[in-house]
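Q: Structure for this?
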Amino acid sequence: MSGAARSMQLLPNYLLLTIFLLIVLLPILGITLSAFKTDAEIVAGPFSLPSEWSLDAFKRAWTVGHFNQYFRSSTIVSTAVVIASTFLSILSGYAFGVMRFPLQRLVYFVMLIGFMVPFEAVVIPLYHIMNRFGLTDSYWALILPQIGQSISFGTLWMTSTFLSMPQELIDASALDGCNRWQSLWRVLFPISKPAVFTLVVLFFMWTWNEFLLALVMVQQESLRTLPVGLAFFQGRYTSDIPLMAAGSLIVAGPIILIYILFQRFFIKGLMGGAVKG
Amino acid sequence: MVFFYGLSKPTMNHRRSWPGESKFLGFVYLLPALVIYLVFILYPIFETFRLSFYDWKGFGSKPTLIYLQNYQEILQKGQFLSALSHNLVFIAFYSLLPILIGLILASLLGRRALPGMAFFRTGLFLPQILSMVVVGVVWRWIFNPAFGPLNMMLKSIGLTWLALPWLGDSTWALPSVGLIGSWVQYGFCMVLFLSGMQRIQPELYEAAELDGANEIQQFFFITLPGLRPELGVALITTVIAALRVFDLVYVTTRGGPGDATLVTSFLVYRSAFQQNRVGYAAAVATILTAIILVVSFLITRYQSKSEV
């Protein structure tokens, strides 16, 4: 069969895929275009092009809408959570996957519970506990519980990563005179980098998008994260579409950028154990 | 973030301790993670369970032990059951519809590798990474009765009578929010099943065709069993998303109009933080958690049967 004939045969397949792809992309395209339009141009239809690509809505969202503050909060919280959770997950995954200690399986099972249980089951007492220690309305109230939930998944992820490494490799590092700490960082960590990076990407996405915890724990506006800021913002400016669109893009922008750069890791992480059983 | 394929992972018994090493060294590595986890996740879970047996108005008031009265109210008054029934409707939109779309597409397209699939995969997966608040804002704009693209389009093709106030209509609000969930999930299911199809050996289909099996028989006897691991992941991810849905409802309808889109997690939030019925909220949260755990367990069991 010639190449052209083969392509013709595949054409219906591509057509079908394209339709489903457009259903996903058109709403995102529409909101992106809206962010650059004036109020009058909005009425002309979702996919009309703006006469001039105005950044006015972004400027208004950033300053008047306080998205500069929300952006700072989200960056601080996400950075802290990602660094701490990744480091602690590597350590606990190393303990479960490479070492032996008493009660190992019981503790492992207990740590998995946090990964299955939704934040709704945690947030009510957590709020009152944090309040008692004066930690509500602080970044700590957003960072610490998020680390707690992240390391539950991270422990699972890193344990299975380290479990897949051959015992001979670990033994060889002992013969070379490494202690456990050196064996982890000099031998196992370098070959686990793709798995660790997947974890980093997932932690970042979950923390950046987290809503319920940030909604409950923080009342002070300057501490709000981007999703909560956007939710309140929409309550006030429902009919100012360019402003809402710009706000949405500020929230989604960093995630989309990282997704485009590292999509392999996102997809691998989110599809989990399905593809490689 | 809900697939917990790790439960059935192999034991850790093939590891050896090093000579002269304390058998408690593992705890040293584990300790910092364990402490944070115990204090900020596990202890609050127990507290939620304990609070569910109390009547508590929150700050400044004393909790009173009322045993099972919160649970009694949950079962006797319609509010919780109506919220839970809305979650069940969401399962149809979050789970069944996307899985159906994914399966149909996978069986139509999946038998041969398509060049350029990576491009489609990137796009189809996109809603998965977006904040649900952003998704809600985008769709509120689309559904807006006055200037939203959906109604503008309907009016321009003469279907003015169909240009409803989607999210503000007590009949249409629930399916409208549900459709947003379908939009988020179907690409994920498609990508998942299409990649699963690559694992099924083409010889199986060829043999089936020789035996005179038609397309539908091939679907039920080859495709469906072959995709079992992917089906497990798709089910667990989407069903739990439907049971937990909060952000999207908060942004699009706040449970309204009336209680038309009230879902369980929103009932938890509203009772605990707006109506100061902390004990009742804790009881609802406990039941929601129990449901999620049971559902996860059942789906994982279904899935692990295929991975012997």
